[in-house]
Amino acid sequence: MTTFPALLGQRVRRDGxxxxxxxxxxxxxxxxxxxxxxxxYGTEEARASILAVVMANPVxxxxxxxxxxxxxxxxxxxxxxxxxxxxxxxxxxxxxxxxTRGDEETGRAELVAATRAGRRAPxxxxxxxxxxxxVVLAALSAVALTAAGLGVRGSVVSGLGAGxxxxxxxxxxxxxxxxxxTSSGANSxxxxxxxxxxxxxxxxxxLGTPSNDLQRIESSWLTWLSPxxxxxxxxxxxxxxxxxxxxxAALGMVLAGVAVALHSVRDLGGSFxxxxxxxxxxxxxxxxxxxxxxxxxxxxxxxxxxGGLVTGILATTLAAVIRDIGTDNPAVEQVIRSIAGGADVxxxxxxxxxxxxxxxxxxxxxxxxxxxxxxxxxxxxxxxxSTPVDRVRWLASFLVIAFVGILVVIGAALAGAAAGLASxxxxxxxxxxxxxxxxxxIAAASVFLVVTAVIFVVAPRLTIPLGWAxxxxxxMLGLFGPLFGFPDWVVQLSPMGVTPTVTGDGVDVExxxxxxxxxxxxxxxxxxxxxxxxxxxxx
Amino acid sequence: xxxxxxSVLSARDLAKYYGRVHALDGLDLDVGEGRIHGFLGPxxxxxxxxxxxxxxxxxxxxxxxxxxxxxxxxEAASLHRRIASVPGDVSVWPNLSGGETIDFLSRLxxxxxxxxxxxxxxxxxxxxxxxxxxxxxxxxSKGNRQKLALxxxxxxxxxxxxxxxxxxxxDPLMAMVxxxxxxxxxxxxxxxxxxxxxxxxxxxxxDVVSIVRAGKVVESGTLADLRHLTRTEVxxxxxxASPLESIPDxxxxxxxxxxxxxxxDSDHVSSVLPALTALQVEGLRIxxxxxxxxxxxxxxxxxxxxxxDGTVRERHRTAAR
Lengths: 539, 321
Description:
The complex is a heterodimer of chains A (539) and B (321). With 539 residues, chain A is mainly alpha-helical. Chain A is 75% helix and 2% strand. Chain A has 20 helices and 4 strands. Chain A has helices at 4-40, 44-55, 58-63, 72-99, 101-106, 108-113, 121-147, 152-179, 183-206, 227-232, 243-264, 289-328, 330-339, 345-378, 380-385, 391-424, 429-458, 463-484, 488-491, 510-530, and strands at residues 209-210, 217-218, 501-503, 506-508. In chain B, a hairpin with a 2-residue loop joins strand 8 and strand 9. In chain B, helix 3 (98-108) runs parallel beside helix 5 and helix 4 packs antiparallel against helix 5. With 321 residues, chain B is α/β, with parallel strands linked by helices. The chains are: A mainly alpha (539), B alpha/beta (321).
């Protein structure tokens, strides 16, 4: 194993900056949440009353953690733990795929396997590298929480809990890299497993049993099927359980063992999910640049569309649940009304979900536009642009498909919302609100589309990092802005914040015209500048 | 030089800078109609950049360039109706099969889906190149990606073929198939710009050759023209070098392994023949300079152990200021 230190060192060097951002970002999120909780919910009574509302609102439980009491630390971890664990899980599964299937796909693994390192040592080095990354993430998070003024014991448990979920998904990433033929296939398999686990834990908590004082929830059995659920059962600052951490770590190591076993019985570059033979001739749709983009993106657009459908179903079904709870308990209704900004409870719920939907549609659009950059660096753009297709038409086909993607996501959500209403015998008037809110999100998501397109034309190297960073920042503003107590104008920097909303008084469409104007201007700018832009050489 | 003929593409004082790097630095190029024009130079000399400018994929920093009398940067799309090209480094869509990629690129070039002529031509080329069209792009080796690009280029007729190192990664048998296709399109009247560093291939195929160095064309002309600029090597069996003294205009006279060797200016070869006849030499061999020697004449100092890379270094120093 003399090559092991070299392999590990190479991984650490290659990922250094990236892992620093992941781990320090996670720790920073923990620190900021602590600071804002201390400001916004300074007293035990304030926190207890919020918890009481949460018990009545499954929507919140879906995207938050497991309530374990109104103590400052416990309350704060309820708000943020799933997101800390989510960051650790994404970091770990991407890391696993990057250094295994990713290297195999580019041929780097073959170079390494031909040396004394052999076939197996690189996998061991990747596993060690992933464990180290999660140890660093756990340590930094614990230090950040302690520095923010929380107890050491709970801080360590919180950090370990997040790192342990990371370990599980390190294993998930390693196994999916063995199963799938490509790194993009392996990444999407791992992310699907991750999203299902995340939602399973949330739904399990929402279906759980609240304690009599409405301060604590005993999760339903569903939560116990998810590594995220196990992580939450540590209940930091309340019970500080360590055994769920062992479960997570053990599952991670079992999966790593499975990956090693699979790796040892397959050829380098081979996979267990075989690649099908391709078609001999191209289908009729593959005749134009637009057809090519549609062909290349249809799978991912379909995926985002499923996300939209689920969001739509949840929006209206849960809105009805909350209305029922509100009718039973006037006090709860009062609180929810204030959270929803004076709107009707059901409308408020729809608005919350459709902010998420806007993010989803924006992700779909940004991913599609980023493909233009990927085609450019890969060199396939050159093939197309060497035929009678000009640069503007080539870029326009990406923009058109990205916009179609937005329409698919929002359309699927509207269909889901209608299905949700139908299944609950809900109030069909709500569908009108849903449609208006959804239409507003089309404009908001389109802003991300054109901004990414302008970046692609003006500063191509930044397309992918900056395009995604903008979506991430908007998501943070949308999801956490109100929690961190950011001023309104900051929240409204996010296009999702200025979309038309339905309030008790009717529809506020002022923001919509700004968005439409911004989209039109950005689209014209991107296509106009593309006329003058060189195609960057591949590589 | 060549007899006067219509120029299909021409570049004058073409420059392309990428930041401080001067990829092209005053390049002149003329490709006559119906010619196969070899474009020679090692990696980094500026061949691919020239081709990118000719295809309108990159805009020249300065200078003028015309393809079929039009500016390729402004009229790229309409010019491409008349051009087939193979890029230097062929990449393909990882999830499209070879057959799909060939069909897609051909349709972009105007082929309709069930066009019979195209389908026959496609099948013929696939058979000739022993190409499996049903593999996914990511599964093709470099040689197979190269075949794919060649089939896509040759499957639809064009007036101008711009090929950037088209045989790199091909085995010798497939290189023969390629040469056959080039001969075929030339007989059809097409013009070919063939960038390469396989000198034997250029020597065999090309009517005209341009040698690029550090972003400039340093030599251009027919092979016969270029040969006049260099010396022909003459050798015959001899025990000692004394007979050589009677021969006029010789250079580099030496005796090696029982053979007398010298060089003579290529346009003076006939003037040494009477002397050789008078000596009644045996085992006479007269070797015109190979393209390789022509090439090394321009690049020899780069390869020399002292590495007197004057031009390139100076360029970079100038750019750095």
